[in-house]
Fold this protein.
Amino acid sequence: MAAIVLKHYHAFNGERLYQHVEEFLPSYAQPHFVRVMVRQSFIRKCIWQISGFNPEIISEPLYFMYEPSRSYIPLTRVLYQKVVSGEIYL
């Protein structure tokens, strides 16, 4: 998982991020999940470990690298269940 902080005048663009990640990072370093932070704050690793990538626990927007659409898409509860059950392979 990666965390990013957007400037107040920028919007998240999943397709653009996917292209950037695919171009500049090797496959083992590409984040499958991206957490968009509202503001930059002190990141506590233990809190992140507890919350994982569960959209019911995380209040910030969370995106999932969805390769068929070549984009990062919002992680919904349905998509989360498919990832956890193994229906969508990471």
In short: The chain has one domain: 2-85. The first strand starts at residue 2 and ends at 5.
